[in-house]
Amino acid sequence: MDDRGRRRDEQCRACSRHVTLVPISITAVLVLKTRVRGRERPRERTSGATHRVTRPSATRADNEEVEPWEMREWYADYLDACNRHDLAAIRSFVDPSVRRAHLPGGVDAWVVDMAELFQAFPDWRWRRIQLVVEDDRLAAHLRASGTHLGAFRGIAPTRRHASVAEFAMYRVTNGRIAEFSGTADNVELLAQLRG
């Protein structure tokens, strides 16, 4: 906004997108309209936060029109559901017939694996290090950690804090994970627990 509090167009410092800053109240809440392919998408932002949409439209029939920023926001929502240990929400992000490299397929097997992990590590959390988006594919580098307080893969609780690097490749169709491959074999995690 200019020095008189009027609307002003400028470029966002965080993402380099063209934004329109609109003064709406004294509480310093800004409404940003990001112009993407001629469409305007309203967003709210509080001071210091980045653009955020609560479930972007990564649910289109084909991912050809899904913008990379929409896929990033979709993945942020998925990771948030994982960090809340919300199995119902996680299920909504996974295709019923998901294929997983070297692991049982289907959303039920996915949810069972997550439930086993959450039961053994009640404080398990993922932190995104890097995310690369290309068309309908996501490549994620994550750091995951938690305290081993329940039985996991035949290992009794050790009360050890484990921290592991994870790498994952996803193919997303219709807003759901259709294919997954990555470091889900837990070799590093099991080595830390056996210590």
Structural summary, described in words:
A hairpin with a 6-residue loop joins β2 (18-23) and β3. 23% of the residues lie in helices and 37% in strands. The chain folds into two domains: 1-52; 54-194, Nuclear Transport Factor 2, Chain: A (Roll). A five-stranded mixed β-sheet has the order 5-9-8-7-6. The chain has a four-stranded antiparallel β-sheet with strand order 1-2-3-4, with no helix packed on it. The model is unreliable at 22-57 (pLDDT under 50). The chain has 195 residues and is of the alpha+beta class. It has helices at 68-83, 87-93, 107-120, 187-194, and strands at 8-11, 18-23, 30-36, 39-45, 94-100, 125-134, 137-147, 161-173, 176-182. It is built from four helices and nine strands; from the N terminus they run ββββααβαββββα.
How would you concisely characterize the structure shown here?
The protein has 195 residues and is α+β, with helices and mostly antiparallel strands. Helices cover 23% and strands 37% of the residues. It is built from 4 helices and 9 strands; from the N terminus they run ββββααβαββββα.
